[in-house]
Write a structure and sequence with these properties.
- InterPro entries: CFA/CMAS (IPR050723), CMAS (IPR003333), SAM-dependent_MTases_sf (IPR029063).
- There is one protein chain.
- Helices cover 43% and strands 15% of the residues.
- By secondary structure, the protein is an alpha/beta fold.
- Strands 7-6-5-8-9-11-10 form a seven-stranded mixed beta sheet.
- Helix 12 links the parallel strand 8 and strand 9.
Length: 456
């Protein structure tokens, strides 16, 4: 097989692109898991007599210009969110999600032995020559409006507020289209009915997939799991760091009779939770602070932080753990639910860092456990919830697609496309084990008793 794209190229744009793909990957058009249609009407790819294969649609030559300047994940993401490329279901594919199906098929091909990007000098020169023939060589296109632009040093208070505002302050109504009634934006718990994995009975169970209210039941099961692990009860005072839309705070106050101080730096979340607390008459039990975690003072009977730890950054993580330790009384428990990632790729990838959650840091679970213990907290137990998160995201995607028109009305087509890509990619990362999420229970106590360990 030759590296010369001209020899492999045909008369249509689609055929020429197929030649570029072949030169760079050794994959022939018939080896691809999707068909491709380009702006000139040309089509290429494997035979598909039943019309079941997804179709990658290249709507504009600008998509190719982007890929010349940003080859790989970022360029593809930019082209997708702007509509320069799209995914369509084949005419015989039914009502499935073409983007998700295309993702899954492309990922399967990428994992085949011997399939990789071959950037030999001859292949690169041939690809650039073909790009010139197609007229797509030019100045870099402007980034999409939905792509975040940040200034300043990592994890200053000002920059952290900007990052959180970009992601969490879209609008509460937007998130309500995706999340369950508890407004929990974290992994649910789909444990077996009657158990939470700690040997104690669950107050609420997850039910069966497809049953109305399954996601909400699983989220309430997660909230119960948190409260029981922390051994919450009347008269206690819980600190919830990174409180989101108040799910943990509301549940702990109403179901376990504790007082709660909840902290967020999101103005939209602070506004929403303040209103919800007033609406439910819980002002005497729940205090909502618009405050950076670094400014927390006082001691509490227990501390929770649900999927906030990955946002504080590698350099600031020891300071974050010091706040957790100093904020809980001796003998008090701390529960951290946090994302993890194997290997040395701490961020979420180019797309996530440009559009969703810049400055995020994930590390292997073992490293987080070691860091927690170094800061004077004894780890009592760890519960992996990666499979639960994959199921949670599946529910979010179903709700997201069901409310497509309303979401586009709220945030526009481009942001809809950003989130479609984000949810599908996130679900795949959890299913394939590239990302995880874990509940880590610790105690501020030099020597935990045997009973402590038995009840984890």
């Amino acid at each position: 097989m030759t590296d010369n794209v001209t020899n492999a190229a045909g008369s249509t744009v689609a055929e020429r692109l197929a030649g570029i793909v072949t030169a760079l990957t050794r994959l022939r058009p018939e080896d691809l898991p999707v068909r491709m249609r380009t702006w000139d009407g040309g089509v290429t790819g494997p035979a598909d007599p039943d019309g079941t294969l997804p179709v990658l649609v290249v709507n504009s030559p600008t998509a190719l210009t982007r890929l010349l300047w940003s080859p790989g994940e970022l360029g593809l993401a930019q082209a997708y969110v702007t509509g320069e490329i799209d995914a369509e279901a084949g005419p015989g594919a039914g009502d499935g999600d073409a983007l998700a199906e295309g993702f899954a098929r492309l990922a399967a091909v990428a994992r085949r032995p011997g399939v990789r990007l071959r950037l030999s000098p001859r292949a690169i020169v041939a690809a650039l020559r073909a790009a010139g023939d197609l007229g797509v060589v030019g100045l870099p296109p402007h980034p999409p409006a939905s792509q975040i632009s940040l200034r300043g040093r990592l994890h200053t208070r000002r920059r952290d507020r900007s990052v959180i505002a970009h992601h969490y302050d879209l609008s509460t109504d937007f998130y309500a289209q995706i999340l369950d009634d508890t407004m929990s934006y974290s992994s649910a718990y789909f444990g077996a009915a009657g158990t939470d994995g700690t040997g104690e009975g669950a107050r609420s169970t997850a039910g069966t997939d497809g049953t109305p209210g399954v996601l909400e039941a699983a989220q309430r099961a997660k909230l119960d799991l948190i409260c029981r692990k922390l051994r919450l009860g009347p008269g206690q005072h819980l600190l919830d760091i990174g409180c989101g839309w108040g799910a943990t705070a509301i549940h702990a106050a109403t179901e376990y009779g504790v007082r709660v101080t909840a902290v967020t730096i999101s103005t939209e979340q602070h506004r929403y939770v303040t209103g919800l607390v007033a609406e439910r008459g819980l002002e005497d039990r729940i205090s909502i602070l618009l405050q950076d975690y670094r400014d927390i003072t006082g001691q509490f009977d227990a501390v929770s932080s649900i999927e906030m730890g990955q946002h504080v950054g590698e350099k600031n993580y020891p300071s974050f753990l010091r706040v957790l330790r100093d904020s809980v009384r001796p003998g008090g428990r701390v529960l951290v639910q946090q994302m993890s990632r194997r290997g040395r790729h701490p961020g979420g990838g180019q797309f996530i860092e440009a559009f969703i959650a810049p400055d995020m840091t994930m590390r292997p679970l073992g490293e987080t456990v070691e860091l927690i213990e170094r800061r004077g907290l004894e780890v009592l137990g760890v519960q992996g919830m990666r499979e639960d998160y994959a199921r949670t995201v599946d529910h979010w995607i179903a709700r997201f697609l069901a409310h497509r028109e309303r979401i586009i009305e709220l945030v526009g087509e481009e942001v809809f496309r950003v989130w479609h890509l984000y949810l599908i990619g996130g679900g795949m990362a959890f299913r394939e084990g590239r990302m995880g999420v874990d509940q880590i229970l610790a105690v501020r106590q030099v020597g935990a008793s045997a009973a402590d360990r038995e009840n984890v």
